[in-house]
Design a protein that fits this description.
It is a single chain. With about 200 residues, the chain is of the alpha/beta class. It has 7 helices and 6 strands, in the order αβαβαβαβααβαβ. A 6-stranded parallel β-sheet has the order 3-2-4-5-1-6. Strand 2, helix 3 and strand 3 (about 85-90) form a beta-alpha-beta unit. The longest helix has 22 residues, at about 100-120. It is globular, with a radius of gyration of 18 Å. Residues about 90-95 have low confidence and may be disordered.
Length: about 200
């Protein structure tokens, strides 16, 4: 894509402007680090445009205090840019091992998805981050047909970015933009746990 020009101009009857402002379904997947970080970077751009931003965070614990959350909340409350709403689902349920926990987490995921569907129908936000959303899809906690229909049939100009490893093929096929983060090396490979300022 030299100089930002598309290699192909489709014969779809749309003007360049109409095609350029078409809402996107975006997927960040793969084994490498940076999927959520890239999505939150896009949320910063959306905030700067004055768009309402909705973050729906699956899997990561509601107790975690990640840097992106604090930054986006402060920016959303600043009176500049767009408003930011941050939703946390569950209590870090991908790592909790206790009797009955999986069904509780599946119920949390279904409740979170029901809220996202309501917000998509109401066009509550212009930009959505569905962080770690591939996991409840992979684990079968959500109905794939229902998710696909809601995402591809969303009204208006709502951009949606989904993060997480192992994105299902049907989601990859439906998306307009898919980035696969590869891993060459990670400190955890050498036994080093996550650290402040890098992971949160």
């Amino acid at each position: 894509m030299p100089q930002g020009k598309p290699a192909v101009v489709p014969d779809d009857g749309l003007t360049t402007r109409q095609r350029r402002t078409r809402p996107l379904l975006i997927v960040h997947t793969g084994p490498g680090k940076g999927k959520s970080t890239a999505a939150f970077g896009m949320a910063l751009r959306a905030w700067n445009q004055g768009w309402p931003v909705g973050v729906f965070q699956f899997v990561k614990s509601a107790k975690w205090r990640i840097g992106e959350e604090r930054a986006l909340r402060v920016l959303g409350d600043s009176g500049e840019g767009g408003p930011v709403t941050w939703h946390k689902m569950g209590e870090g349920w991908s790592w909790i091992q206790r009797p009955g926990a999986e069904e509780d987490h599946a119920a949390d995921a279904r409740e979170g998805w029901a809220q996202i569907k309501r917000d998509l129908a109401a066009q509550t936000y212009r930009f959505y981050v569905l962080d770690e959303f591939t996991y409840p899809l992979k684990w079968g906690w959500l109905d794939a047909d229902d998710v696909l229909a809601a995402l591809t049939g969303r009204p208006g100009s709502q951009h949606v970015v989904i993060t997480g490893r192992d994105a299902p093929e049907w989601l990859v096929e439906a998306a307009d933009l898919v980035t696969e983060m590869g891993k060459v090396r990670h400190p955890m490979d050498a036994g080093q746990k996550g650290q402040k300022g890098i992971e949160w």
